[in-house]
Every structure is written in C-alpha cells, then in structure tokens.
C-alpha cells in the first residue's frame, strides 16, 4: 500500500546502510524519496545505481557503481542473491566495479557489496539477468558465418573458422579462448535433474587481444567428443582455465559441429542419424507434454492480436521481412508467452501469406512445439526451466541430428507435430482512450470524464487489478479544459510485481516497477515476478501476466490509450468500468454493491457509475512521488466530486472549427466530442485512430461475429494411393480428394468444414 510520507524531523538521521527500499523513522530510503526530497543523507551512498544495469545470464560482465565513491584501497566483494560472490575492484577514480556471475535464471537479481572483505554488505542494488540471445550482438563475440561453424565437417564445409570481438571489452593485452559445454544430468522431471555449464578445454592460449582469431578446427579427442552444444568464452590470460565469474566475452550458444570427433567427420550423416534415433527412443520414455500446451490461434490476425498470450517469434517475423529459415512457406510465427504448467513446455504457431496456420503434417514449414520453452519459466534454476538452454538441449540440437545433419526429419516431426486450433478461444478486449471513452469487454461504449483514480477491471479469479488515473485536459493555448483523460495506469495480478505506466511530457511514457522508474535503454523485454514486460521502439508498453491477461498502453496527444485483453476463463469474473464480462451488455453498468444501472443511462448517471468505482488509498497501486500527486490524489479525494465536466458539447454551425471537425471525424462521435471539448483537431485525430484500432482488434479476434468462434474441423489426411487439395481446415473450407492412376475413389470426393466443427461426408478411400 502507498505510504503517508512524514517529513524528516530535525536532528539525528537514520542511515540507509542495509535499509534500501525502506521508509525509516526520520527519512526515506525508497526510490520515491528523491522527487519528494525526503531521502536520508546517505541514500546515494548505500542504494546503488549501476551502469550497465543488465547483461547475459552467462555472467562475466563488468559493471560500474555510479553513485558511490569508495576508498581505492578497499577490497570489494559483490554478492548476488545472498550466496554467489564475485570479486569486485575500485578503479583509480574511486568508483567501484562488480563482475556479474553465471546465473541459471533471468530477471532482476538483488546484489549487495562489501568493502571489508565480506564481513558486512551494507550497499545494495539490483542486476538484470537477461536471456543470452536477447543481449546485444556487441556484448558477445561473433562466430563469423555461424552456419559454417554449425555444419563444419558435413559435406562441403571445411577450411578456416573466424571469431571476432570488441577488444575494448576486456582490459587485457593477451587473452585465452575456452570451449564450454552445457549438460543436464539426473532423471528427467525429478528432483535430481540438474543443469550445468562446464569448462571443457582451452582452444587458444595467450593470443593478442586484437579482436580477431582464425583457426582450422581439428577433431576433438577423448571425453569431450560427447559435447555437441556449447559456447566459446574469451578471458584475459591472467586468469586460470575455467575460472568462474571473471571478466569474459561469451559467443552465442551453438551446435559444436566444428569440435566433434573423427567419428562425426568420417560419416556425419550416420553419426547424426544414430543420435536422432537415440533421441527418438528417449522421447518415447518421457511424459507427453503436448497434452498440456495451449492450442494455436486459428488465423494470423488472431495470433498477432492475442498479445497477452502470444508474442512474435523473432526467427520468423512479418515486420522484419519474413525471413523464416526453419519454416519455409511461413510469413510469420508466434510463440506462446507462458510455459505450460507442469512440464514448462512451449508452443509455436506459424502462418502462410493467406493467414492460414501451417501444420507439420502438411509441410516442413509447419510450427513445432517445444519440450522446453525457449524463455525458460519461473522459478528457473533447474531443468526443464533454464532460459534458452533447456530448449536447445531438447528441441534444437535434436533438430540438427534429425533434420540438418541427417535425413530423418520425419522422426523429429513425429515427436513435435503442430497443434491445430480446435480448442483455441480468443480473448476479449476492452479499451479506454481520448477524454476517456470506454469500450467494455462485451462491446458497450460510454464516456466518463471523472477526475480521480478508478478501478478499470478487477477479477476475483486471479486478483487481477487494473486502475486508471484521469487528469484534466488542456486546450492548445495551455488553459485547462472541462474534460479529463487517462494520465496513468497501474496494474497487478495475485502477488506479482506492480507496473505503472504514466504519461510524461518529456519521455512520452514513463514506466515504474514497484514504484521505481525503470529504463528500457538496454533491454526492451524484461522478465519480472508474475509477468513479462515489453517496450517497442515506438513506445507501446505490453504487460503479459501469467494468467494470459495482457495490458497494452500507448501515449497519444497528452493521454494514454489502454487495451486490456483477458482469456475466456475470466467470463463472469470481472467488474469495474470495463464491466462484467459475460457476453451481455445489459449488466455492464454494475456498481460495487452489485446494483445494475440501465444501458440507456444519461451522461450524468454514467458520471455516478464511474465515481462509484473510485479506488481507495488502501487498495491503490499508484505511486505518489511528487507533492502534486500526494496533494491531488493521496490526501485529496479519489474522485473529485467538485469537478463537473462538459457532458455534451455544443456544435455551433458558426464555429469555424466545426467545418474542419466534420471533414476529419466524419460520423465518429468520439472524435467529434474530443475536438469540441479540447478545441484540438490533433486530439480528435488520435481519438479517431484509437477507436479504429479497437474496432480492428475486436474484428481480428472474432472474425465472424455471427459465429463467436473461429471454427476448426481439424486436420484431414489424404487417402492411401491418393492425394488431397487444400490445407485450410477452418469453417467453410473444402478439401477435395483424387486417387492415383489405376485407383477408384469410394466415399466423399469433397468434404466441407461445418458449423458443428465436423467434416461433411465420409472419409474417402482409393
């Protein structure tokens, strides 16, 4: 809950040593203390700001402690999660540095620092651990022509390999290049299943740190031959082989074809085929994860609209030119955001240029689900939940065995068949935009221009809460208008982190994590507690909660535009300004005490309905970090009853703005309303665009409103000794069948997907 801040008393002050994030008796060690000017005097000394603030979970990154000057003779010890220690150092300028450790998880990791050799750790901060493939290319060393490294030793692939890196990243004149391998040991899906990155051997020793190294790989001898997935690590030569948590540059994770033994070089096809068959046998013994992963969206439009549950697969992205190497024929793929509950498996869905789902049973370009979700899943730390690497071990290196290094792709596709969309149900969307117009989950729309903080949606199903703050709009000349707009949105589900997005004149959007402003300057995707957070280059913020609910926020013309998506399981489990989601509009104006107001209510009555959903201080998720916010929304009333907005603006034909408004808005009532109340065509235009976007989103999710679902009849096989025409299995599609020469067809020549979800006619045979 928000805190009522006491101004510090004169006299002795508390210290922030060991107390960052706390509100103390005389002063504050919370992030909000700076803008409120109530920090303890030593806040900046003990509550650390670092740069860079993020790096790969593989560790080895040197980061600077910006705000604290230390004694140059101090011995720094950096400790992560209270248990993993790395050595730090103090540079000549008195600034401290830490080295990030190897972690088997992503997200914000607490760390503390000791200057007395590890006796006490009074300085604290957080480090952002990032999925290895989501770190920037400049942070890794580059395998020049990576395909050559991963196919080395297969037909027509030999010669020299080259590695390049940013030599400035390591303060050393000579370096060593090491080979590391990844393995998971113990029994699958048991307590003793463990993940390990292991130093194997040093590939090159004491070579000059020029940023480039070329070599001709020789087949590996002995036990190392069994390691086929790993990375290279570059370290200063002054450290010992395989020493952990030291300054390093890692390569990308890759298939270690180039280092495999003579048996692979002699006959790569036979070697890989044997590995593929062995993998297939192992898969036979493992539990079937396919039964618990979610089905795919039926259409490309649905897949791109369902942003709470599916996210672009960067290996096949329509916005980046559809370079779909592993999925020929696809224009776009998405991945399910959440891993499946028990086995932490992942889903992938690919679509062709007509927007139809591609299935592996029809084409090698089809989507393949994953035994290990590529992004890992909380609580991480153990297989199958290790970000990136569990997935490589079960789903990627096996693809090399079966599909890339040998011709046994049928075995891979048998174990990783595409899911169709028969059980997919689209989410429902609600939106708020302009000087605020609301669209409920059931499609009712209304305008409510209260000033205050309100519950937009809350649910007893997952304790999802989304709250909105409205502030008065301004005319183009700077004076205050008698209408309001969304200025901040705060949200939480169960005991997840709290996210707040607010409009900022300077930044457009400002995002707060647990009441502290966060930056997307290094990472656009952040794994958090109970949610994922993503920011696009054009500043659209998406919050993806573990229930599959999604919240999207954009900044437009001084206000926020908000969309909330919730899955079907929230039916009859929502209340607030976005209404009771049940497919009926007549109960959308339900008050907190469950009384219902008619859908034909007047603007004045709607004002009462909105006011009823004002939040209370005890349940507010907002941050009050300025005097203005404290006085306006914390000490003041949550709903400002003395503010009465314009309920229906007057269209005066003599008003020169009316003519331009008609040209811009046409018949859009929200656009007209906002032009008249704010006297701004720009505001009207952004309202019109937001309204169009909401309508398009709803249409994409529910393509045919007469049939509430996209109906799929499921995959149809071709008859033995015949073929089929068509790979679309959705409502109204027709599949026809033809027999090979010399065979006669019995059964149906054509079958059509019906409203019941069943195919017409009978299965043909030849």
Automatic annotation (TrEMBL):
Keywords: Disulfide bond, Membrane, Sushi, Transmembrane, Transmembrane helix
Disulfide bonds: 739-766
Source species, domain of life: Eukaryota
Sushi domain residues: 711-766
Domain SMB: 12-51
VWFD domain location: 428-621
InterPro entries: AMOP_dom (IPR005533), C8-3_MUC4 (IPR056619), Epithelial_Barrier/Signaling (IPR051495), Ig-like_fold (IPR013783), Somatomedin_B-like_dom_sf (IPR036024), Somatomedin_B_dom (IPR001212), Sushi/SCR/CCP_sf (IPR035976), Sushi_SCR_CCP_dom (IPR000436)
UniProt-annotated location(s): Membrane
AMOP domain ranges (all copies): 268-416
CDD domains, sorted: CCP
Pfam families: AMOP, C8-3_MUC4, Somatomedin_B, Sushi, VWD
Record bears the keyword DNA repair: no
UniProt-listed PROSITE patterns: AMOP (PS50856), SMB_1 (PS00524), SMB_2 (PS50958), SUSHI (PS50923), VWFD (PS51233)
GO cellular component terms listed in the entry, alphabetical order: membrane
PANTHER family documented for this protein: MUCIN 4-RELATED, SUSHI DOMAIN-CONTAINING PROTEIN 2
Protein name: SUSD2 protein
Species: Rhinopomastus cyanomelas (Common scimitarbill)
Encoding gene per record: Susd2
């Amino acid at each position: 809950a928000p805190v009522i801040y006491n101004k510090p008393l004169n006299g002795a002050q508390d210290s922030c040593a060991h107390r960052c994030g706390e509100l103390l008796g005389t002063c504050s060690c919370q992030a909000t203390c700076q803008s409120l000017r109530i920090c303890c005097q030593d806040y900046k000394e003990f509550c650390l700001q670092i740069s860079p603030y993020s790096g790969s979970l593989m560790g080895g990154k040197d980061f600077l402690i910006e705000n604290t000057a230390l004694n140059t003779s101090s011995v720094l010890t950096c400790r992560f999660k209270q248990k993993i220690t790395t050595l730090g150092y103090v540079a000549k300028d008195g600034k401290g540095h830490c080295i990030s450790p190897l972690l088997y998880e992503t997200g914000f990791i607490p760390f503390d620092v000791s200057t007395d050799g590890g006796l006490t750790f009074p300085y604290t901060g957080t480090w952002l651990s990032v999925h290895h493939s989501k770190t920037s290319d400049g942070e890794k060393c580059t395998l020049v022509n990576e395909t050559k490294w991963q196919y080395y030793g297969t037909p027509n692939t030999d010669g020299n390999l080259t590695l390049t890196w940013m030599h400035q990243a390591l303060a050393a004149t000579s370096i060593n290049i090491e080979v590391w391998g990844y393995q998971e040991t113990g029994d699958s899906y048991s307590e003793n299943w463990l993940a390990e990155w292991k130093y194997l051997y040093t590939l090159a020793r004491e070579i000059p740190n020029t940023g480039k190294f070329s070599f001709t790989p020789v087949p590996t001898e002995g036990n190392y031959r069994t390691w086929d997935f790993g990375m290279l690590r570059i370290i200063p030569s002054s450290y010992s082989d395989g020493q952990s948590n030291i300054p390093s540059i890692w390569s990308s994770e890759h298939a270690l074809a180039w280092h495999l033994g003579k048996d692979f070089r002699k006959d790569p096809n036979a070697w890989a085929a044997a590995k593929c068959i062995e993998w297939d046998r192992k898969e036979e013994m493992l539990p079937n994860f396919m039964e618990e992963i979610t089905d795919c969206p039926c259409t490309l439009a649905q897949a791109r609209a369902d942003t709470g549950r599916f996210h672009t697969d960067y290996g096949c992205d329509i916005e980046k030119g559809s370079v779909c190497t592993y999925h020929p024929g696809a224009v776009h793929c998405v991945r399910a955001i959440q891993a499946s509950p028990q086995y932490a498996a992942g889903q992938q869905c690919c679509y062709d240029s007509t927007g139809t789902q591609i299935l592996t049973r029809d084409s090698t370009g089809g989507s393949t689900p994953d035994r290990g979700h590529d992004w890992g899943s909380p609580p991480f730390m153990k297989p199958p939940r290790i970000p990136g690497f569990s997935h490589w071990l079960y789903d990627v290196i096996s693809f090399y065995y079966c599909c890339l290094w040998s011709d046994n792709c049928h075995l891979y596709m048998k174990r990783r068949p595409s899911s169709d969309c028969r059980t997919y149900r689209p989410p429902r969307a609600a939106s708020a935009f302009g000087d605020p117009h609301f669209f409920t989950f059931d499609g009712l729309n209304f305008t409510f221009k209260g000033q205050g903080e309100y519950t937009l949606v809350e649910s007893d199903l997952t304790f999802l809460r989304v709250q909105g703050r409205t502030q008065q709009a301004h005319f183009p000349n700077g004076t205050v208008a008698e209408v309001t707009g969304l200025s901040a949105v705060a949200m939480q589900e169960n005991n997840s982190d709290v996210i707040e997005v607010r409009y900022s004149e300077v930044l457009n959007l400002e995002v707060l994590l647990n009441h502290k402003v966060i930056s997307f300057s290094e990472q656009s995707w952040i794994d958090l507690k109970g949610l994922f957070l993503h920011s696009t280059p054009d500043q659209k913020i998406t919050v993806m909660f573990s229930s599959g609910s999604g919240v999207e926020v954009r900044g437009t013309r001084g206000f926020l535009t908000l969309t909330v998506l919730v899955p079907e399981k929230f039916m009859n489990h929502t209340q607030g300004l976005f209404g009771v989601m049940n497919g009926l509009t007549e109960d959308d104006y339900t008050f907190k005490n469950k009384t219902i107001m008619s859908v034909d209510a007047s603007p004045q009555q709607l004002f009462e309905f909105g006011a009823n959903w004002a939040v209370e201080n005890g349940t507010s998720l907002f941050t009050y970090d300025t005097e203005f916010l404290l006085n306006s929304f914390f000490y003041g009333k949550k709903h400002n009853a003395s503010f009465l907005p314009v309920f229906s603006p007057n269209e005066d034909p003599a008003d020169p703005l009316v003519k331009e408004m008609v040209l811009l808005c046409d018949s859009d009532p929200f656009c007209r309303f906002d032009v008249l109340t704010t006297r701004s065509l720009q505001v009207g235009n952004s309202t019109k665009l937001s309204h169009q976007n909401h309508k398009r989103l709803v249409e994409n999710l529910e393509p045919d409103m007469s049939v509430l679902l996209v109906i799929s009849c499921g995959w149809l096989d071709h008859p033995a000794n015949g073929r089929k025409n068509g790979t679309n299995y959705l409502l109204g599609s027709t599949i026809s069948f033809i027999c090979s020469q010399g065979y006669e067809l019995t059964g149906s020549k054509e079958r059509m997907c019906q409203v019941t979800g069943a195919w017409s006619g009978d299965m043909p045979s030849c």
